[in-house]
Amino acid sequence: MQPRPHSTLEDVAKAAGVSPATASRALNGTTQVRPHLRERVLKAAEELAYTPNAHARALAGAAHRTVGVICHDVSDPYFAAVAGGIMRVASDHDLLVTLASTFRDPEREVAYVSMLRAERAAAILLIGSGFENPDWERALGAELEPYLKGGGRVAVVSRHRSLRVDTVLPENRAGAGAMARALLDLGHRRFTVLAGPRTLTTVADRVGGFRDELRRAGVALRPADIVESAFTRDGGYAAMTEVLTRGLDATCVFAVTDVMAIGAVAALRDRGLSVPADVSVAGFDDIPIVRDLTPPLTTVALPLQQLGERAIELALTENPGRRRRIHRMAGEVVIRASTAKAL
Amino acid sequence: MQPRPHSTLEDVAKAAGVSPATASRALNGTTQVRPHLRERVLKAAEELAYTPNAHARALAGAAHRTVGVICHDVSDPYFAAVAGGIMRVASDHDLLVTLASTFRDPEREVAYVSMLRAERAAAILLIGSGFENPDWERALGAELEPYLKGGGRVAVVSRHRSLRVDTVLPENRAGAGAMARALLDLGHRRFTVLAGPRTLTTVADRVGGFRDELRRAGVALRPADIVESAFTRDGGYAAMTEVLTRGLDATCVFAVTDVMAIGAVAALRDRGLSVPADVSVAGFDDIPIVRDLTPPLTTVALPLQQLGERAIELALTENPGRRRRIHRMAGEVVIRASTAKAL
DNA sequence: CTGAAAGCGCTTACAG
DNA sequence: CTGAAAGCGCTTACAG
């Protein structure tokens, strides 16, 4: 496995004719080193193609420049946008980012936290909806607790009720409520909601916010009007198809996620229905692509990149009081051409 | 920084009343340990919320379970798809993935390789087009060389002429040629090509393949027919706008990337032109979203997820001969509704 | 099967 | 400013 091991600090020191301590100081610039020694060390390092062993360094007490990010799926556009923000900030701070996809498996999430803990990541970021699941909450807490006690920093994007950690909170409930109002204003009274799994807090919040606002206007959402499916494009397609098969009686479809809305529009089109002439469609998130769809999608715009930026900034920033900081981010309804006035 | 340090192997050993060596063996299952001792160790570890320090482990000689991935931009859908494949395989092998975005800055790429080398990543994957730039090639080689000598594994996706490492090679040239033929078959004779920066090998290959096939049919592509722009959606928009401003005389636009094609379609639409009635548009890559566009995009389909899977598999797989292995992946022309017969 | 000991490659008080 | 030494937390020959 190690045909020819990497050169070490000792090699460099020897080549430069100094002690390892001096070589270390010259390389790190921690202390003054006389210029001519410094030169020799740098030259030797260069010639030997020396790279410090990050593990030895971390073990010896230097801060470890890595932050761990756990998401559901790297290839989801929602996460891609959030990750963009994280990477930008990380790069400014010279941090390496370790990324893990859980594919929405709670156990895998816990396992990754454990691995990140083992890596002594400077911070761990949990991106995306938590689960409403006591077992998972307990297991996750059991990993996070000792990590925090050991000086680790944690921040999450989206609601994790049981986690007392810094949080960036998209206002899902309010955003969905605002969307309901906007759609009511367009004259719609009969809705179909395409939802993801109920165990996700994000789904619960968005569906709840939407339903409550409708109720306030005297419009009821019956259980049958809410279709649960996977939190993906194909999930949206499947849910919409199911609705179509048993007969659509709504004038407007609200998908709790843009990605699901995209699937829904595809399903509608495959059935020969036109958006918004036959039925209006709205989503949530404002992932970059929806602007370029035809028709462009009405949605609740979240500042996705900022979500990522704030999360890593929270984690990187000292939290003296050690109290939980919550950074709320409002969503804004953007009406585009996928929704029309109800007939 | 360390209010209460993590518990260590020694803590566990002490609590279990055994030596650290035995605790280590019980935890790792490397050697037989008498069941009752094993039990005690496991119980102690559980109670102390023990997690081994990955750095100490790596330093002491255990294989480090991390692979580094360097890409241009995590939030690019092309990369997101490739990354999906990488993550899947990584998760099967219980590997952690460290991801870095270079934002197409050659220097940053070299810096990241250096950091990954310092981390003693088990493998480094370079995803995306290389640059045609001797300085960069030299600098990158200087980092990769010692990494390889030290037992590191490297694989790349896309062409990196100067790198003698395992390669997954999309057949850009052939794919672009096939697209040219398909468009000629539709009757088109006047083309505009939306290209990314010429210094990217991928751009050179795709433009070259397209041009050569056209020439073979007696159709010339003049320099003015090729517009260079950023390798992004906005780059495609800008390039298309520029063409429109000085007057479009082509019946078909070929963007070297789907992402650029999406921008081009948006620009066309903003000018009131219809695709494909007024002008046909074709892309390259077949990122997932293009199927759901209206009209769906004609493109050269690449098995994006497989690109990522093959790359990490190549890197993880022993290479006895130490010769460069090249895994070619063909692209397939998929005609969708964004291209029509020329009038 | 188990333990004492050496060693992985650094950093950082501690002397000088 | 520089060096000898201890120590970070593991793993793994080496004895027993």
UniProtKB/TrEMBL annotation, chains A, B:
Keywords: DNA-binding, Transcription, Transcription regulation. GO terms for molecular function: DNA-binding transcription factor activity; transcription cis-regulatory region binding. Coiled coil: none annotated. Residues 7-61 form the HTH lacI-type domain. Pfam families: LacI, Peripla_BP_3. InterPro entries: HTH_LacI, LacI/GalR-like_sensor, Lambda_DNA-bd_dom_sf, Peripla_BP_I. This is LacI family transcriptional regulator. It comes from Micromonospora craterilacus.
